[in-house]
Design a protein that fits this description.
This protein has 4 helices and no strands. The protein is mostly helical and 86 residues long. It has one domain. The N and C termini lie far apart (38 Å).
Length: 86
């Protein structure tokens, strides 16, 4: 199964958080109860933003930044482990 596209309007919150766990703190920061909710296999980012009265473009930008940040940390991690071994 290939990795989904975050801009896919049909991407469910469940799949989003499974593929990019770094997005979970964004939901928590906004006090959204989506993490662990039984509806996440059915709701999309659009649905959640509508439910919580959030600007979707701003929220998606925040999700994108969290994924980019996590990706940068993943890239650095092997180098940091190698440095500790020396």
């Amino acid at each position: 199964m290939s990795r989904p596209n975050m801009s896919d309007p049909d991407l469910t919150l469940d799949r989003l958080m499974r593929e990019w766990p770094g997005t979970i703190p964004v939901f928590i920061r906004h006090r959204m109860m989506c993490v662990g909710c039984l509806i996440t296999p059915f709701h999309t980012i659009t649905d959640a933003c509508r439910e919580y009265g959030l600007d979707e473009d701003d929220f998606r930008s925040e999700l994108d930044r969290s994924v980019a940040s996590a990706s940068m940390n993943d890239d650095r991690e092997p180098r940091e482990r190698a440095d500790r071994r020396q």
